[in-house]
Design goal:
Elements lengths: L1 H18 L7 E3 L2 E4 L9 E3 L14 E3 L14 E3 L14 E3 L14 E3 L14 E3 L14 E3 L13 E3 L14 E3 L13 E4 L3 E4 L10 E4 L8 E3 L11 E5 L1 E2 L8 E3 L4 E6 L5 E6 L7 E2 L4 E5 L5 E3 L15 E3 L29 H11 L8 H7 L3 H58 L1
Parallel strand pairs: 3-4, 4-5, 5-6, 6-7, 7-8, 8-9, 9-10, 10-11, 11-12, 14-15, 23-24
Antiparallel strand pairs: 1-2, 2-3, 12-13, 13-14, 16-19, 17-18, 18-21, 19-20, 20-22, 22-23
Keywords: Coiled coil, Signal
Protein name: Peptidase S74 domain-containing protein
Length: 443
């Protein structure tokens, strides 16, 4: 019924404004004051019992509700909607309070926004705060630049530049600045600390909004990350001096070539304190056992070398000229090897082709071809595929020259044989004639 009378009164006021001169003072309808409140300003709006009652020079204020902005004197540009909103504000400016008791204790604080029952209720002089939700930032008195959204978010906080999002987010945080908390009914690791992060009790951080660039640390599954980015206890970028991305693996700070399995099986990639990157396979190992270099599936050495399936330790290969080592077979569809020279020099006119006799003597003495590695050398040093291909082609080209020379010799011999045969044929014909002549003479 009271709301009906108020509505009718507003209609009557509107009608009278068109029909006769407007009211020059506030009016009271059924105990509800309607007007601009006290003081000389002309751009205030006051609706409600004692709204803007003590105002003197404050202007462009809007007060709706029981005792809204009742104590305001010189504060301007404030909006109060609800019972006791901005109740004790005197000189504070540019505040917005929507909801009973919101910004109730504010006196000189400015540029605050409170939406919800008792939001920013205890704020006195804090500025640039935003509270959305029942009891949001309720205890803040002098803190600045806070943002709270959610029932009871940052309820106990008195610090500055904190962000709380979610139902009862950081409810018990009493002090500390530059904290960020996102989630329902969760707290920060240190209830009085600063520069902390907690997202859903999963992602934690330190050094948030720190004055030192790059000082922050992020952790997933750990409340106190010690590295720039750390994931829990078994999946971590750093642990005892080793760095990696692994599962079920724990490092001992005293170990340089071994890691211990927390829960089997285990595998992953990690960065060693020697500056190498190792890929490890411990799928056949059980919890509690250690993994040594025999279980590295691949190692990228800081010397620029790569080992696949090798049991070499983390110091790399002894021969620094070897850049890629594979223990076991390699299968490929195509392999291209760069060459600076090839064996065609064998066909040059100035090439000295060894004689067959000299090659024979060399083989008899050393049991392998000239310029070709011996069996002992191959066992000790392996085979340089590029160099060996060139050597083999050199021997094939030399053999080709030998064959060509032999063919020339054969051709020459054949010509000589043809001449001999021709002479033999002529001699045979001559002998036949002589025999016939002898026979004729006998007759």
């Amino acid at each position: 019924m009271k709301k009906t009378f108020l509505f009718l009164a507003l209609c009557m006021v509107t009608k009278q404004q068109y029909a006769q001169s407007p009211f020059t003072t506030d009016i009271i309808v059924n105990g509800v004051t309607i007007g601009k409140g006290s003081g000389t300003p002309t751009y205030n709006t006051a609706t409600g019992y004692n709204a803007l009652k003590l105002n003197t020079t404050g202007d462009q204020n809007s007060a709706f509700g029981y005792k809204a902005l009742i104590n305001n004197t010189t504060g301007s540009y404030n909006t109060a909607f609800g019972m006791f909103t901005l109740l004790v504000n005197t000189t504070g400016v540019r505040n917005t309070a929507v909801g009973d008791f919101s910004l109730e204790s504010n006196t000189i604080g400015y540029s605050n926004t409170a939406l919800g029952y008792q939001a920013l209720d205890h704020n006195v002089s804090g500025a640039y705060n935003n509270a959305i939700g029942h009891y949001a930032l309720l205890s803040n008195a002098v803190g600045n630049g806070n943002f709270a959204s959610g029932h009871g978010a940052l309820y106990s906080s008195t610090g500055s530049y904190n962000i709380g999002l979610g139902y009862l987010a950081a409810y018990h945080q009493t002090s500390g600045d530059n904290n960020i908390i996102i989630g329902s009914n969760i707290e920060l690791p240190n209830l009085t600390g600063s520069n902390q992060l907690n997202i859903g009790n999963i992602v934690y951080g330190t050094g948030i909004n720190s004055s030192t660039p790059g000082a922050g640390k992020i952790g997933i599954g750990t409340m106190t990350p010690t590295e720039k980015f750390q994931i829990g206890d078994r999946f971590t970028f750093s642990d005892g001096g080793w760095k990696g991305i692994c599962s079920n693996i724990k490092w001992d700070a005293n170990l340089e070539t071994n890691v211990r399995i927390v829960e089997g099986p285990a595998s992953g990639m990690f960065y060693t304190n020697k500056g190498n990157t190792a890929f490890l396979n411990g799928s056949t190992k059980v919890a509690g056992s250690t993994l040594n270099d025999a279980f590295y599936t691949m190692v990228l050495y800081n010397s620029g070398q790569v080992g696949v399936g090798t049991s070499y330790d983390l110091n790399g290969f002894t021969d620094q000229t070897i850049k890629f080592y594979v223990e076991g077979g390699v299968r490929a569809r195509k392999v291209r090897v760069d060459q600076n020279s090839f064996a065609d020099f064998v066909f040059h006119k100035d090439y000295h082709l060894p004689t067959i006799d000299s090659v024979d003597r060399y083989i008899q003495q050393y049991q392998h071809l000239p310029s070709v590695p011996s069996e002992k050398e191959v066992k000790e040093n392996g085979v340089d595929v590029s160099e060996m291909n060139k050597l083999l082609l050199q021997k094939i080209e030399e053999l080709t020259l030998y064959t060509i020379d032999q063919q020339k010799q054969l051709d020459q011999k054949n010509k000589e044989i043809e001449k001999i045969n021709d002479r033999m044929d002529k001699l045979e014909e001559l002998m036949k004639k002589m025999e016939q002549q002898v026979l004729n003479e006998k007759k």
